[in-house]
Design goal:
Chains A, B: The active site is at residue 207. Chains A, B: NADP(+) binds at residues 10-17. 2 copies of one chain form a homodimer. Chain A folds into 3 domains: 5-133, Rossmann fold (3-Layer(aba) Sandwich); 148-301, Dihydrodipicolinate Reductase, domain 2, CATH 3.30.360.10; 344-437, 2-Layer Sandwich (Alpha-Beta Plaits). Chain A has helices at 14-25, 27-34, 65-70, 86-97, 107-124, 140-147, 162-174, 178-187, 196-199, 202-216, 235-244, 305-320, 362-372, 412-424; strands at residues 5-10, 38-44, 60-62, 76-79, 101-104, 128-129, 153-159, 226-227, 246-257, 260-271, 283-290, 294-301, 347-357, 377-382, 400-407, 410-411, 433-437. The first copy, chain A, is an alpha/beta fold and 440 residues long. Chain A is elongated, with a radius of gyration of 25 Å. The interface between A and B is large, with 62 and 62 residues. Strand 12 of chain A pairs antiparallel with strand 12 of chain B, so a sheet runs across the interface.
């Protein structure tokens, strides 16, 4: 048998500890799969004194992960520190500079510095592997990079943030507000004390940028993702979605469009009958549309120590087996430059919830403004406020009431222009709610 | 760049032709992904004169695929002839003997001769790759072999035959009989003139045996699969399933059980809310339960020239990139012997549809026989025939009526014994229908 693959694990939080345990527990299986023993020879973490319940006998401890990365007794650095800068970035850069393979779960690092790191890894002839960075335990990186080599991908989209999906699932099932569900998610440990990164869509944007690069062979461009979170979603939107045959999910979507690749993260109406609509709670799902396979959907755990460690160990086993593939599926020099497509040019169906004054002619006024911009309306739902105290002879209260429109495919630019005109007409009592529809 | 990977394609049917076209169409992408050019240098098929619309300029034609396999101008033989014996087997054996890699879509060949072929490939240091053999375009082989190396798998199950799923989906949606749907499936080309291999579950059994070997690290044992097809499913079963919150799918299931691995193919009740229940028509789906990732589900096309070619080309690209993994995830000598578990010992919930004489005391008689064997009943549904001409004062017709039971977990042996006792009591007007329930 070949020489052992010697691992240095930088970061012993939930995922790092799970990796250490998994490598020990599955030692025989990993050796059989990779053709050589896999051993952890060094670790690094902030607090040496903390009891993590790990057997670290014979393992060298480094206080400084950068020193670990440079150690001659390591073949591969497993970076599980997190963050796009600071020690995580320094550790990965040092590892590559020292000619060591890198396995990481760090989506922020890849989203921001992936292009430079991939080029550096190539120059040194080492691997930069990151299965765990997107959708936790779902092997979506491997699927896109290796499983679909014969395909031209036209769209990749998915639920890639468990926090948001948990919140939206509970809002839907229990009719609760965003704020109430967020509080519960925080209490359960599904959301951070500062939830902005998750609920405003930035986490999903990082993951999407990675998938975009792999799926379309373009340079990673996280800055080019249009991002909108779920904090403005109201219980009424979920009720309306239900009535109209949809569910609301925070999706990341990358698709081929005129002039480039559209990259967008936003709350999305998906048909209730679609596979992705069934995905509830903290589960993740990714769907890939490609010319040869048609539609492929992968559903599984998006987070958690064990599930994430599963992806890390998959990368480690590939390295043990001598597998080296270009970081983003092809050499850095073969990646096309990112060509952004402005959201104004996005074309799709829209759910528009207006809060209008309950007066004669309002619906007609709205419809006219839409028609002026060639926006076709598929359905209109109007709700009268039944509790309103005074009503005119037609049952109108004069109070603000919701008016919901579903449009056929239209450009975002024309929708926005129509809404501006409707607002200028003085028909709106509140700012409009706009949710994009994604068809299968 | 390294030397080209030279392919010999044996078999130019739907899949073979799609592979030839895909390798040409994706030449640049495959070279970028695999680090070397991929070229088809030889082909073989039965009818040289037939126009397949392929550009075979500069490609050597072999009338005999075994001669192709031995050609010195080929690095990898792509076997797309099909069948567990005859030219397919001879071609694969000749290719391995000549030290060439093999990529195949041939599930029957692997199910029957996989162990011997894997050992031969190992001895020669070549790869035997077969992503296309199970679930068409879904990368389930790669996922089990590489993506879940850190996991102990406890169960793998799925819808792996599009013909059966198409028939069951139509029976459910349109209330049609098995026979009527089969006829339509044949007219649409989804079913063969002799549909036995598909509808009686043997095709699923071959695929399941391959997944079992990979998932559990055991020697492939297709003979050890308990097989039951869908031809006895009646429209009434689908109606009852709907009422009880289930759908009926033909599943292949392999799971860890006391004393070994249970391998079974049978019509199965799955909860309507499960991801696998949403899979309709010719689509396939595979779910993997494993200790680290929990549950992972892959959904996609199970057949079709392009989707199958996608899987073949994925294997080809792996070879171009120099990836070589043991055939069944670990060396042949490291596979455990198959330990069969008798279906009598299977434990699970059951749907039992009895056709009983509509007389006093029948339900009580049935329940007593169940209770004697410690079988707990979750629900009972009884339907009176409303059109029966003569009824006694209690509304009983004396005519045969359906009596449906859902049991809690029980062993198949005890269920069978109870049904034998019920039959011996003379309560049954027809043989009972028994459908196993698979919980998430």
């Amino acid at each position: 048998m070949k020489q052992s693959l010697r691992l240095g694990v930088a970061g012993l939080g939930t995922v790092g500890s799970a990796v250490v345990r998994m490598v020990a527990r599955r030692a025989d299986a990993l050796a059989a799969a990779g053709g050589r023993d896999v051993r952890i020879t060094a670790v690094s973490s902030r607090d040496k004194g903390r009891d993590r319940g790990l057997d670290l006998t014979g393992v060298t401890w480094f206080d400084d992960p950068v020193a670990l990365a440079a150690s001659p007794d390591i073949d591969c650095v497993v970076e599980l520190i997190g963050g796009s800068e600071g020690p995580a970035r320094a550790t990965v850069e040092a590892a590559i500079a020292a000619g060591k393979h890198v396995v990481t779960a760090n989506k922020a690092l890849l989203a921001k510095h992936g292009a430079a790191l991939a080029a550096a890894a190539e120059a040194k002839g080492v691997s930069l592997a990151y299965e765990a960075s997107v959708a936790g335990g779902i092997p979506v990186i491997k699927t896109l990079r290796e499983g679909l080599a014969g395909n031209a991908v036209s769209r990749v989209y998915g639920i890639m943030n468990g926090t948001c999906n948990y919140i939206l699932s509970r809002m839907e099932r229990e009719g609760l507000t965003f704020e109430a569900c967020l509080k519960d998610a925080q209490a359960l440990g599904y959301a951070e004390a500062d939830p902005t990164f998750d609920v405003e869509g930035f986490d999903t944007a990082h993951k999407l940028a990675i998938l975009t690069s792999l799926a379309f062979g373009v340079e990673i461009d996280a800055e080019g993702v249009s991002v909108e979170g779920i904090s403005a979603i109201q219980p009424l939107d979920l009720t309306m979605a239900e009535e109209l045959g949809y569910r609301i999910k925070l999706l990341g979507v990358a698709q081929v469009a005129a002039g480039g690749i559209e990259q967008r993260v936003h709350p999305t109406m998906v048909p209730k009958s679609s596979a992705i609509a069934q995905v509830m709670g903290v589960t993740n799902a990714v769907t890939i549309d490609a010319d040869a396979v048609g539609e492929l959907t992968l559903i599984g755990p998006g987070a958690g120590g064990e599930a994430t460690a599963s992806a890390v160990v998959s990368d480690i086993t590939d390295l043990a087996a001598g597998v080296q593939r270009p970081t983003f599926g092809r050499p850095s020099t073969a990646l096309s430059p990112s060509q952004r497509v402005a959201m104004q040019r996005h074309e799709g169906g829209y759910y528009i919830r207006l809060t209008v004054h309950d007066r004669p002619g309002v619906a007609a006024g709205v419809a006219t403004r839409m028609a002026e911009r060639d926006i076709s309306i598929e359905s209109i739902l109007q709700r009268r406020s039944e509790s309103a105290a005074s009503k005119d002879p037609h049952g109108r209260s004069g109070q603000p009431v919701p008016l919901v429109l579903i449009t056929y495919a239209a450009t975002e630019g024309s929708i926005r222009a129509a809404l501006d005109a409707i607002a200028a007409d003085g028909l709106l009592a509140e700012a409009p709610q706009l949710i994009r529809i994604e068809r299968e």
